[in-house]
Design brief:
single chain; 625 residues; mainly alpha; 25 helices; 6 strands
């Protein structure tokens, strides 16, 4: 169990120790956190040499008396410390450690000279250890323990320097904490009926209401962590106010990996889904895609725009896993990995731009491609990848999901017969994603550069290095998707499958490269580059400033469209925010119940008696169950 000790316990223990370091040792803490992450990465790689199956941790210290009380206690705890080592858990663990190392490197330069989050690196290490613990454990009790504490680290990795960021952190903590409480109910139902907390031992049908309730409670936690509709509303607020390193670590990568990993366990391993549940999951998936991307289209703050796209991409994963076919599940898992790659890269790009300019609004940016060429190239690759443009990795995983939907339509069932709706909405989501990322890239890097940005320069290699590395992975995973990535990495996660369509990613990549080279040759040989650049003027007066038109203005027509304008106005009033709606309901009920506080002792006694009767009735129902 040495590898598991280093992967899970080492980051947790190191994180706790780093809390004792004084504030002025930020660089030292960062270096120690990076070294700890690298050690965890080495042992995560060594996990691939383990046999598949359930492994039990031996927590009894050597040389301890066999009959002692402490020995018996540790043996009892060891019985719960079971870990499921299979291709999926190994690969998610590897991805978790890789992203933590990259973002730790990025943070060493990103947070220099800024108001840092206190104890940033200790919380990063705690997040690493708890995430790998949740991924590897087979015991639902240990899982919910790791999962629940992660809500606290998520809360602490957003600064509370002003009222807005404090409100975003509080919203995150409440929504994650509430979903964790709901998950406990589902775990309790499973324990009461099946008498086991081992995920690998469960094969639960969803033919009974109480078992459906258990599934829905656990799915609620998965959706909230990953950011699926309607439990997604904490993510845009979080990404808008959190530092880029925090956003790239949690909502973009680790939270997505963990949330979708658990959804895969639920849908593939733990539960047998009925047809109507498949329909519900598919509906939630396409709603997540469309609703989030429509909100992203109208955003002016690029970090909030990326936050909505972090939500939208989850919809594709939900659709893929809900299909239940080998092709669909493989597509969902592949997209989970791809999304973590390019979405983390996009947040790192956003951090670079924010660090270099100090601005968050697209209206105040533009023309930075020459000043920040490396960041621009990385941003362009990430934007094309998330939009599903071939031959990048985002297209490869979406292509698998599209094929999975078509394959799903060949099977009987109500949800299967309307496969064209699921396919059409998924493709529409990709088109709208491309439209919003044209806005993102053009608004930051293209167009005219204002005088306020004349001194902007590229950020340090520690900041653009991780982004370029992730961009190269996007290219490799896309170009070699069919020939290497899918058969060598994705198929071992779930199983082999056949393709519905044909996709030769390497051949297409060569054709695209040839067309680009040919276009460049024509450009240079034809002498098209010989042109003059001058100021626009009318009647001898320079009108450059007056004729400038921000890229966000082109998207205002969508917001002003008659049908969409009504929806957007209600969204501004938080009508679709489950957090705000629930808060209003709770406060209204509180005001209503406050009227019962009459100050009369007899009235209080009646309320207490009524509450006890209600509690006993509920408890009696569980005893019967």
């Amino acid at each position: 169990m040495t590898e598991l000790n280093y992967i899970i316990l080492l980051p947790i223990v190191a994180g706790i120790i780093l809390f004792a370091f004084p504030r002025g040792t930020r660089i030292l803490k960062g270096i120690l956190a990076l070294m700890t992450g690298l050690v965890a990465l080495v042992f995560a790689v060594r996990l691939f040499g383990w046999e598949n199956g359930i492994h039990t941790a031996d927590l009894v210290p050597a040389g301890m008396a066999a009959g002692s009380l402490f020995n018996r206690m540790m043996q009892g705890i060891s019985g719960f410390c079971t870990f499921n080592i299979d291709p999926l858990s190994r690969f998610i663990t590897l991805c978790t450690t890789v992203f933590t190392v990259l973002i730790t490197v990025y943070s060493l330069a990103c947070m220099k000279g800024e108001r840092e989050i206190r104890h940033f690196y200790p919380y990063v290490l705690l997040t690493l250890g708890l995430t790998t613990g949740a991924v590897l454990t087979d015991n639902l009790l240990f899982f919910i323990t790791f999962w629940g504490i992660l809500g606290i680290t998520l809360y602490k990795l957003i600064p509370g320097h002003d009222e807005a960021s404090s409100a975003a952190a509080k919203k995150t903590l409440i929504m994650i904490g509430a979903s964790d409480g709901i998950m406990l109910l589902g775990i309790g139902i499973i324990w009461r009926i099946y008498g086991t907390l081992s995920m690998s031992a469960l094969d639960i049908p969803t033919t009974y209401p109480v078992l459906v309730a258990a599934f829905l409670t656990l799915v609620t936690g998965s959706f909230t962590k990953a950011g699926a509709f309607p439990f997604h509303t904490w993510i845009p607020d979080y990404t808008q106010k959190a530092p880029a390193a925090s956003s790239a670590l949690l909502p973009a990568s680790l939270d997505k990996l963990l949330g979708i990993y658990f959804l895969a366990r639920l849908c593939v391993d733990m539960f047998i889904l009925e047809g109507w549940l498949v329909f519900v999951l598919l509906l939630i998936g396409v709603m997540t895609i469309i609703f989030a991307v429509m909100m992203a289209l109208i955003q002016h703050e690029y970090k909030k725009l990326l936050g909505y796209h972090a939500v939208s991409q989850v919809g594709y994963m939900v659709v893929g896993l809900a299909l239940g076919t080998p092709l669909g599940i493989a597509g969902g898992l592949f997209h989970m990995i791809n999304n973590a790659i390019y979405k983390s890269g996009l947040f790192l790009v956003a951090g670079n731009v924010e660090k270099a300019t100090g601005k968050n609004d697209l209206d105040h940016l533009g023309g930075l491609s020459k000043a920040m060429p490396i960041t621009f190239v990385a941003a362009l690759i990430f934007a094309l990848s998330i939009s599903g443009v071939p031959p990048l990795n985002g297209f490869a995983s979406k292509w698998l999901i599209y094929q999975g939907i078509i394959d799903f339509g060949t099977q009987p069932g109500a949800a299967n017969q309307i496969w064209y709706i699921w396919l059409g909405l998924a493709v529409l989501g990709s088109a709208l994603t491309l439209a919003s990322f044209i806005k993102f890239v053009a608004g930051i890097f293209l167009g005219r550069k204002s005088k306020a940005l004349e001194k902007v320069r590229e950020v340090s290699p520690l900041m653009w290095g991780p982004g370029i590395l992730l961009a190269l992975v996007c290219l490799v995973f896309g170009i070699f998707a069919a020939s290497w990535v899918v058969p060598r990495i994705i198929m071992p996660l779930y199983g082999s499958f056949g393709y519905t369509g044909i996709w030769q990613s390497t051949t297409v990549s060569m054709l695209i490269l040839a067309s680009i080279v040919l276009g460049v040759l024509i450009y240079w040989l034809a002498g098209v580059r010989r042109f003059r650049t001058d100021e626009i003027f009318i009647g001898g007066e320079t009108t450059r400033d007056q004729t400038d038109f921000p890229v966000t203005g082109f998207y205002k027509t969508i917001q002003d469209f008659r049908f969409f304008s009504v929806i957007y106005k209600q969204a501004e009033k938080k009508w679709f925010d489950i957090y705000d709606v629930t808060a209003k309901i709770v406060f209204s009920l509180g005001n209503l119940l406050s009227k019962a506080h009459t100050g009369v002792l007899t009235a209080y006694a009646i309320w207490i008696f009524a509450g006890l009767v209600l509690f006993m009735l509920i408890l009696f129902q569980f005893i019967i169950l």
